[in-house]
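Lab notes, practical 5.
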Amino acid sequence: MLRRSLSIALLVLGVGAAEASAAPYKILSYNVQGLPQLVTGIEYDYGRSNEARGKDIGIRVRSAGYDVAAFNEVFADSMREGLLSELPASVFPTRIPQLDGGTAGAQDSGLMLVSRFKTIPMPNVQPSECASSSPAGCSVAFHEFQACSNGGKAFADCNAEKGIGLVRLANTATGRPLDVLFTHMQADYGGANAATRAARAKQFDEVRAFMDRWLPRGQAGGRDAVFMGDLNVIHGNDEWAQQLGTNSALDNDFGFRDLWSYEHSASDRGHTYEPRNIRSNSNSREKLDYVLLRRATAAPACVHHQRMPWKLMRDSTRADL
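Output from the prediction step:
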């Protein structure tokens, strides 16, 4: 939980014959590290308030034209207020400011999502997981992870209601529904260790079970889908191969492809966690954040997957956001 990753974005363009008129759409996953003072005073210090940082991040997200933006670590209420003030409902009719599972005494999930696309109610297949409903169905689904580990820390993952959210959006760029699954998974503390990795493996089991309930494997149903967030899996290692690689259940059974791995040069590791883009004493350089895509059709698509340049995420005084 105590890490801030650079944002990563996905630009999807339909290029098949049946999609020649489809417009591109832009998706963003961004860990804003909006931690309460209890945590920020320990490891991180931006020298400015969470609200001020939230406002500046919101301005950049809005001006960059993202159609869907999912945020991790929006734990501080002031960070949430700052983001929402610059991501108004007049521009983003879908706003999911907070998701939680109701665990007493815990932080919420830290998840937040905004979109220029409107929601489509889903069949309420699991009432206990419906975070927002209407007579037409479930607008937002959320599952709180049951597995967690504090990795020897006094205040860490088990003190937050981390989980996975789902919203179905009317994608005006393609004319098809878009299922958006967004999450923040178990972190490692001081490097990978058996307890945190085991907890994360159990969370992946929960993710796949959640997907099976709400969008079963092999049933795209004419909808595209993305699965994104800070997964805390180091790209290219054995855990990545098991959970996200071509032989994983997410790829083989559900059809979610880690596009960075197949659309970019092997020389570009796509680091989202490194000294240049975090406020931390760590010297690690790792790709931990992902946007996976599942296409509704077999038509070809052009996908541009990028990290947001660090210098563009600084304010006018050159302070980190």
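Observations recorded by the TA: The longest strand covers residues 25-34. The helical segments are 37-43, 50-63, 77-86, 194-214, 238-243, 249-252, 259-263.
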